[in-house]
Design a protein that fits this description.
- The protein is an alpha+beta fold.
- It folds into two domains: about 45 residues, Ribosomal Protein L9, domain 1, CATH 3.40.5; about 100 residues, Ribosomal Protein L9, domain 2 (Roll).
- The chain is built from six helices and eight strands; from the N terminus they run ββαβααββαβββαα.
- The protein starts with a strand and ends with a helix.
């Protein structure tokens, strides 16, 4: 099924573009939500105007949201969680958790569709993009660490373990030291040659 996008759709395209999509996706999601219309000869004539208006609307949105994006760019959110010995979480850090943390820390309300990330199920540091518009996608850092430990402590412990293991694996090799008696030394031979 071919549709003409009348709004920007993340991971699909920009307004004014014609895209081929699965029939169910077009009929059940894009068209009812107002993101697209069927690509008919009549609608194709409107594509240019839709593209121009969408570009103007996108520029205005980028300008309005740039301050908010600037606030979030480069920010770090910390999530203390319970985790097993291997670093696997007893649960996960979801989009909703990230949205709540942003709202609590920066008083910025986001919609779930603006943060598209898989639930985080392991300790570590993750980059999470926030989609304001097609052109405005600031990234925040999400640090998931074990409860009761400082963020990044588990990484330091892993590094120390690796260093300790490396030291254990490479034993100190003692070089064979052969003692040379005075009689066998080259100096002794030189002295004997001088005397003769």
């Amino acid at each position: 099924m071919k549709v003409l996008l009348i709004k920007d759709v993340y991971k699909l395209g920009r307004a004014g573009e014609v895209k081929k999509v699965a029939a169910g996706y077009g009929r059940n999601y894009l068209i009812p939500k107002g993101f697209a219309i069927p690509a008919t000869p009549g609608s194709m004539q409107q594509a240019g105007r839709i593209k121009v208006k969408a570009t103007e609307r996108r520029a205005k949105l980028n300008e309005e949201l740039s301050d908010i994006a600037e606030v979030l760019t480069g920010k770090t959110l910390y999530f203390p969680v319970k985790a097993g010995e291997t670093g696997h979480l007893y649960g996960s850090v979801s989009d909703d958790d990230i949205i709540e943390a942003i709202e609590g820390n920066y008083e910025i309300k986001l919609e779930k569709r603006q943060i598209e990330t898989e639930p985080i199920r392991d300790l570590g540091t993750y980059k999470v993009p926030i989609h304001f518009t097609m052109d405005l996608v600031p990234e925040i850092t999400v640090v998931v660490h074990r409860e009761g430990e400082l963020p990044g402590e588990e990484e330091k412990e892993e590094e120390e373990e690796i260093l300790v293991e490396a030291e254990e694996e490479t034993p100190v090799q003692e070089e064979d030291i052969t003692e040379v008696s005075d009689e066998e030394s080259p100096e002794a031979e030189l002295d004997e040659a001088i005397e003769d």
